[in-house]
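Input.
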Amino acid sequence: MRSLLGLLSILSVPLALGCGKSDAEKFNDAYCAEVAKCCAQAGMPADGKTCHLVMSFLASYGSYDSAAGDACLAEMQAQVSAGTFCSGSSSSADSPCDSVYGSGSSGTKQVGEKCDFDNDCAGGTEGKATCEYDFDSGVGTCKALGEVGAPCESTFDCVDSAYCDYDSDLCAARVAAGGACTLGSECLDGYYCPSGTNQCTAQKENGAACTSFSECRSSTCDGGTCKSSGLENPDVAMLCG
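Output.
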């Protein structure tokens, strides 16, 4: 369910006018129209089908909060106007977009209680809890994520600031610049793990020389150069298809 929280954090774009549709439907239509522009710009499918499918799913699991929607739109319109919606992070850390399709919970549900989204759970908006979805039962349950030193089977078991050290099977703090690493997932965001030095190194900006996508902040290494992919916002990219 962490991916759903990511989706909630990017709900944006000017509200489209339409007759016979609810505010939530207008919101979804306008949002997916903006996503389609990003998809087309990156040469990806731009029919909006995946976007509308995901947005309809979110709407079915939580009520539309018009106040949060208006605040979200105001925040995101600035990014659309600035041309950063497709290429950058699409919301602030405490974005009202996180609550557009909340289930009515204010993040107070405890471990073991049923949930629909990460932000239903206490600590969910801080990356310290997740709503773990069981596809067999169709039920989500709040699960606490492991702090540094907690047992883990994968990095998804750990808080956002940690990764799973598979040598010890314990959550470990993500490594800062210059720290030893073997995998890129061990490094803080914005850094990668070169095989030559095995030290967390800052990712390169567009125009810098590269040999692999992991070196580039844009995740695109084309012809030996870091380049813009045209769609560097991962939350938007996952809705193209």
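The longest strand covers residues 129-134.
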